[in-house]
Amino acid sequence: MTDGGGPREACGVFGIYAPGEDVARLTFFGLYALQHRGQESAGIATSDGRSFFLSRRMGLVSSAFTEEDLRRLQGFVAIGHTRYSTTGSSIPVNAGPFLVRWGDEAIAVSHNGNLVNGDDLRRELLEAGIPLESTTDTEALAWTILRSTGRDWAERIRTAMARMVGAYSLAILTQDALIGVRDPLGIRPLCLGRLDTGWVIASETCALATIGAEFVREIEPGEIVVIDREGVAAYPDPVPRPEHAMCVFEFIYFARPDSAIMGQRLHVVRQRMGAELWREHPADADLIVPLPDSAVPAAIGYSLASGIPYAEALIKNRYIGRTFIQPDQRLREQGVKLKFNALPEVLEGKRVVLVDDTIVRGTTSRPIVELLRQNGAREVHMRVHSPPIRWPCYLGVDMATRDELIAARLSVEEIGRAIGADSIGYLSLDGLFRAIGLPRQRFCAACLTGRYPVPVPPERLLRRGSRVQELASVRSS
Ligand code: AMP
Predict the structure, then answer these.
(1) What is the pLDDT of residues 454-473, one digit of tens each?
(2) Ligand 1, residues 85, 357, 360, 365: which to mutate, most atoms within 8 A of Cβ?
(3) CA distances in angstroms from 456 to 136, 269, 378, 392, 399, listed in the order given
(4) Which domains can be identified in the chain, with CATH numbers?
(5) Residue nearest to atom 5 of ligand 1 (CA)
(6) Segment 228-257, tens digit of pLDDT
């Protein structure tokens, strides 16, 4: 059973080809660095050239593998996955990587992204008698690759890519090779790194740094990179495309601040977002306070640009996972209280600018504004370093359905009132792209604009709990 569009896959992927190394353990450390991309389950698959080994479990990387698991994961090539999804699909059988076998062939796949035609592929595979065991797009695309034809893996993957519509950054494990793939629009990041003893691919550069690998380059949109005993072979996208669609939300929130994407260190980009935010929405205030941790760089940028002191006034319990992950609203609200405490000595009598990266449902902002006031803040001015999120993501970031998005229902002023702030200001789309400093046609900003880079099937829009009007407003290019 699918759960209405299949689970979203906003995940972390990792792969390593390094004969002589403990590839499972290095993957384990790589996954630690990608934990922020998915906290629901973690898995590693390895190959020793003859057999595949797979271990995957629900939970955080730290609890998903035992020493015994790591010892059992033999070989010289490995892939790993951290997974994140919505309610309903949080079951062990959906954990990655996926290992699929057909005759005497097998591959394992870690996937970050979301296919918009995943259900069509699944239906075709089921009709062809393929015993799908999960509700994920990943399993469908793994089977599509395994069953496609061509002289070698690169050709077979290229053939399969013609059938796959949407976002996918993949780490694929064959019996003796590691393969990295990015969808032709380059929606999710994927990079290539080098160790003395081999090669690494990862969703983000922070995972390369963690295991001591040197950043080589990004895997390009539409590119297939095959790493085996011959070295690295790159197969670029055969179709030149003037536009790509890197997810702007990776820049705003999702990727770690110490990662670089498209040559931009995200901490620095987010500082610039904060500076732009000050220019567009200044505030008469005494303190700039970030909502930790994701808004820290932008709050620093806002403070540096304005000259208003930066202060830590909210302390986050780092052992409580992202409240966003909690499946229902009551748990999410409780999560906010469990997660933050405030410092009255810092806040007493102060006019505070509260900086956050996004307001999605509005669940976080209201109790935080209240908490700041209860602890002495005289005024609370909300500043958000992205434009309002008005559209759901079908390409790999699970935000919410359209009905749940507060900015799809309320105007900016109404949101300010709803969260109890004295004033509110969002960064404009122009300001956002000024801060990013790269051409807009290289990005997907559908969550902000409603312009999706791939056609989203109408039934998908409806099934995601959105209103019928949304259909009329979605433009595809
Ligand atoms: P909300 O409480 O629903 O308005 O969500 C906004 C908060 O969740 C912000 O503080 C963000 O830092 C965080 N956030 C935004 N998008 C996501 C996401 N896709 N996954 C997890 N957390 C998110």
Answers:
(1) 988 776 665 544 333 333 33
(2) 360
(3) 18, 30, 46, 11, 16
(4) 12-244 (3.60.20.10), 264-439+450-476 (3.40.50.2020)
(5) 360
(6) 999 999 999 999 888 999 999 999 999 999
